Input
Amino acid sequence: MVLSFRDKIILAPMVRVGTLPMRLLALDYGADIVYCEELVDIKMLQCRRVVNEVLQTVDYIAPTERVIFQTCEREKDQVVFQMGTADPERALAVAKLIENDVAAIDINMGCPKEYSTKGGMGAALLSNPEKIEKILKTLVNGISKPVTCKIRILPTLKETVDLVKIIERTGVAAIAVHGRKKEERQQHPVHCDFIKAIAEAVSIPVIANGGSQELIREFHDIEAFRSVTAASAVMIARAAMWNPSVFRREGLLPLEDVMRDYIRHAVIYNNHYTNTKYCLCQMMRDQLESPLGRKLHGTQSTLDICEVFEMTSFYESCQLSQEARKVSIHVNVQETVETENDNEENHDLIQMPVRFERKDYLPQITPKMFLLEWCRKETLPQPVYHTVQRSLDKFFRSVVTVNEKKYCSTLWDKSKKLAEQAAAIVCLRTLGLPEGKLGEEESNLVRKRKRVITEESVNMSGQQGGEQVKKRLHDNENVDD
Output
């Protein structure tokens, strides 16, 4: 499906509002296209793509395990990924990472906020047409999906039209124009005359943006804004944030009904409660001092929010459904693992269903350290770990080779280190050796470690000495790992 930007009504990208629940709600109410909130290229390049089978979403997850971008099949052909960038190659790398999960890629060249402009992104690009041209051409030539951009107007109409003509020549599919200058804010009038002149000067679709504050209150106002700007499409931000049912051709819905519709999406997709609360507060605006607004203000979780809106049973049923899917997925994964194990060609592989739980072991002691110590004592080569990562859920499993025999846990772990410790445990238990668990008889390794700690604690004093002890222990742990 090729995304068209003519005769469309679009949900604008807004920080904290352009998340999946709000985008889906806008589509439910009649939006043709939805943009995600602006995401910075460097942050996206650190993410890994994960198929979330419980929520039936595709999640891009940061190293901190925070979900940076989330999408689903429902919006795949209608969602535009908006990026903050100042570098063509980084922009292309992100676009290639994300293009199969979205309908188009957009470059934000209109954000006037410092977090964006200080990195040369957003409105900072408006004064650098050469860089704009290079970024857009790199994307247009490098990916298969449509590329768009969003700008603000420049100080004069001529400068703005000249820039837009440069952008048109890059081959972009459309250009969104926020009809304000970079120093202007929503309280300033939108320059409809600039948008109209731009629309008449180029052949590509122009998307008019900036009419929420003074022009757009309900659906019929959208067409009036498009008419006065001569634009191909209209992008709505604040009016959609205040009441997403502005997209309904039949007219606005009561605000509480809209809020409940939004909460349903937020619960289904495990939206973080702080974001859910923020969006609901934006909808209530001048009603935050009402009894309902005060109750909302006091919520501390998604369940609290559902209780305020009398949706507790819906929340509980969603939780039960998600837990059931988790159990089903876990069973399927275990069956896959067992099948893999049954087909294992290496019949010397010794396996047990074990995990390494840090709380069950002595401080500063790990099974890998015990295994290494034993190999040294027996003058054997040190253990060799071979670890693989499963594409299904990015979990790890490790096989350790000791004295030409292989040992492995049948369970997969969330990190490489945990998987290696589990493999070491299987080997130690098979050989009948201590592994460092609490309650085991004290071993030579434990006594040696205690002696090292005691001696270094006596020889070192003050904060610096304490830090050196910690560093020594850390170094020892890394060597043994």
Remarks:
- The chain is about 45% helix and 15% strand.
- The first strand starts at residue 8 and ends at 11.
